[in-house]
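User: Show me a protein chain along with its predicted structure.
Assistant: Here is one chain, sequence first, then C-alpha cells.
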Amino acid sequence: PRFISDFQKQFPEVRTELNVTESQSTILAVERESADIGFVGVQPQKSKLQSLRVADDELSLIVNVDDPLAERRLISVKQLAQQPLIVRPPNSGSRRALEDALKENGSSLTEMQVVMEANSNDAILAAVRQGSGIAFLSAAIIDEQLQAHRIHVLKVRGLRPRRSLFMITRDAADGREPLDSFVRFVREWIE
C-alpha cells in the first residue's frame, strides 16, 4: 500500500485497483493476465514472471493484551505449541515463512494447535484482539496496534520467521503506461 500511495501522490490521475489474497493466487493472477503486477511473500518458482525483491519482513508473534502471555517477553517453541494459533492459508508467504522457521527449529505446524485459518491480516488481528488465539503477523502491519497497546509482542526462543517480499510482473518493459512508470517508481524507491 505504501508504494501505491506514494505513486498516486506523484500520479494522481492513475486509478489503482488493489486485491488482497495469498501469494499463490497473486502469482496465478499475474501469469493469467488478470492482474498487471503483484506483491508476494514467496518468489515464483517455475514461472516466466520477473520478480524483484522489494523488502524483507519479519513476522512477530502477537497476543491479546489481556492474555496471560502478555506479561511475558519470551516463550519456548514448546510453550507456543500449547497455545491456540491463528495462521494464514497454506499458499501464503507468511504461512510458508512460519513453516520454514518451525522446521529449522525441529518442529512443524502440525505440532501446533491451529484453531483458525484466515486469509486477511485484518481478520487475524481482530481475532487476536478478541482473544481467539495468538498469531504471527508482519511487524509492519502490527505497528499501529502495538503503539496503541492493543496487542503485545512475544519472542519465541530460537524462532525468527522471516521472508522477503517480491514485486512480480510478466514483463518489466512491456511498454504499457502507467504500469511501466509504476515499475520504475518501485525500482527507484528500493534503490
